[in-house]
Predict the 3D structure of the following.
Amino acid sequence: MRNTKWLVPTLYILFLMLPIYWLISMSFKTTNEILGAFSLWPQEFTLENYITIFTDPTWYNGYFNSLTYVIINTLLSVSVALPAAYAFSRYRFLGDKHLFFWLLTNRMAPPAVFALPFFQLYSAVGLFDTPIAVALAHTLFNIPLAVWILEGFMSGVPKELDETAYVDGYSFGHFFIRIFIPTIAAGIGVVMFFCFMFSWVELLLAKTLTSVAAKPIAATMTRTASTSGYELGLLAAAGTLTIIPGAIVIWFVRNNIAKGFALGRV
Amino acid sequence: MIDKTTNQKAWFLVLPVVVLVAFNAVIPLMTVVNYSVQETFGNNVFFFEGVRWFEQILHSERFHAALLRQLAFTGIILLIEIPLGVAIALAMPKKGPWVSVCLVLMALPLLIPWNVVGAMWNIFALPEIGLLGKMINGMGIDYNFTQQPVAAWFTTVLMDVWHWTSLVVLLAYAGLSSIPDAYYQAARIDGASSWSVFRYIQLPKMKRVLTIAILLRFMDSFMIYTEPFVLTGGGPGNSTTFLSIDLVKMALGQFDLGPAAAMSLIYFFIILLLSWIFYTLMMRNEDQ
């Protein structure tokens, strides 16, 4: 029993890697090879798909657009969620429980419900087709999540820390920035990971709120697939490139993630 | 639990969050409510219709069918992903360099944009050029997910298992790693079987994280849109048209704003109700 235990995670990881391998392998094939003969690995190895993406501005701008709104969203969500989570973890105030549940209900709202009203709202305020619109729209589900996780982390910090600091003459702002935030740094890392993740993978709202100037990379892919026939190699190359930012982020948080899950809420 | 002090000034700390979320949630929700009680023939002319659209949706077979498919899909993936995730977490190494490797590789599917997941599975499962499609057909099973409803369901479920089981694994693993070694030693001295170790030590410790896992998987699978839309487009026929796909079809495809808005509100209400039940159960567990 003991000797075969490693088989389970190994087989699972193998299962996870198969579709990813297929995507990467396809990105190095020519369209002819993809549609022509079935082959397990590229027979005529080509970099053409990647060259197209890196030289065509409609492709590489998609990456910058996506990264721009994801980063704005992550910073915005975390910076407003920090004081709110502190309030929920330390104080009792009028309507606090209802407010907390109301925030969570927004995490439960299907983006499909909000797609059309969001389009009208952001057109009305003149933000349509800007990264700011997408960043703001994604706060709908990222702020509740950030508050929820951060509240979990903050409740794990004993209240004596706050009280000692106030006795020592720290003002609230000073204490919060100098002492409290460094104390829950691991939690903030986990929250940023989740905000990045959910904003990076979401497409329905990002696609609805942009047309040309701020089009995310994932939306560029959808259009290519539908208008210019089946350019599978190009599609696969673009898909492969969207995996890279996620992989980098996971690598940075790999040591915090298990610990963070255990301490925090999610 | 922290002993909280009552302080109404805490509202100032919450204010930025409330303003931002209210801008994003309340205004659009009001727009939806507004549409749901009106009829329009274009040109921004609206007529009040009362609850007609709600009655129409609640009695429409199309909505019943989509809701049924949605419930079946969510039920199936929960039944597969939760036990599978727990089993994998139990088999994972507890310490050492392999832990990081496992966690990083397992978390990878979670960070791929959802339409890329759909596109990836599309080219992976295509019967002529995909590895999976070729393999299944090679075993002598006739498989084509673009034409057979059963194959389409199989592929969609398999894709979701591929995409999200890791979330359950990560959560369950975090719950397991919070169990002190002393518990296992005590169990060994008592001669406990591995089943009773699981039943009386590991499962109770995982209860909290598993509730979160079930809640998250329930909510997200109930809202699933992009992956099945890219993979199957809701087809063949309507066989994989889940609630969100049907809703977008109605709102942006046919531009039936009134019925679509009414459906949105019913849809949101169902998620809210079921999540509220989960939430109360979860809180009751925590109080114990």
Summary: Chain B touches chain A through 94 residues (CB under 8 Å). The mean pLDDT of chain B is 84.
